[in-house]
Structure formats: C-alpha cells, structure tokens
C-alpha cells in the first residue's frame, strides 16, 4: 500500500513538472472531440522521455488540427510500448518457467568435494565447482564411485537427477547454491 502511494505521488509530480495545468485547461476547453483528443495526445507525447517533444516542451506550441475527411483528425499512430524488466515480486513463483538457454548442457559430470546427509537423511553434495545440490526424493542411494564422480542430468519440467556414471539408479535433486 505504501509502495503504491509512493509510486503514485512520484508519477503525479512528474506529470505536474512536464505538463503545465494551463495546457490541460486549454485542451479541456476545446469543444470538438477529435481536436480535444489530439490535444491530449500531444500533451501525453510531451511527457514521454523518449519523444523529441520531451526535450523542450515549452518551445513546441500545440499545432492547430484540421479534421481529416472520413476519419478522426490527427489520429495517433500505434502506441509505443516500452520493455520493462519485471520486478522480483512479479517473477515470484515463475522461476521454473524461465527459458533454458539453447547452449545449456543436458548433463554435467563433476567430482564430489564434500558429501553429507541432512537432518532428514537426504544427501547434500558439494561439487568441485562450488555448486551445492540437495536430494529432494526419498530414494536410498550410496555415492561410492571410486573417483567421486557424479552425473547431473536435466529432467522434465525443470527437474534434475544425480547419479553415478557406472550406475543406472539416480536420485532427484535441486540446486541449493
């Protein structure tokens, strides 16, 4: 609620800086609908940061608008859509839907530098590259490969499996760090 109030007050202060109230009153006084709409569109174009009118709004007067035959006078072009990076709150819960890079490997073979079981009896593996993986299923498994190698493979729907190169059995896991 506080964040919304702050954003609203910042937006209103920006509007008051870029669009003079007298200009809004001038637009409101126009009786023809098409001309009034065009006047408001031009005021809105002044406040966009990427428009040339935003650089010096005082120096560009509002042009007179003549109605076009068979249509609205000065109908604006398609609106400009600016790409905005979603916030962490907007991304919440969608982490598993992020696109996987095309060059991402399907499997990794790495060496275990540290292995232990957590309080729930599930494996927590620290690998030689610093990644930490934790078992998520309740499958019983022993990591006893002579070289300490594990194979991490990508599953469906964003899941991962950890196994050993010389065994078919594997466990489901997630990356913790």
From TrEMBL:
Residues 1-19 form the signal peptide. Residues 53-74 are annotated as: Disordered. Residues 61-74 have a biased composition (Low complexity). It comes from the Bacteria. Keywords: Signal. This is Uncharacterized protein. It comes from Corallincola luteus.
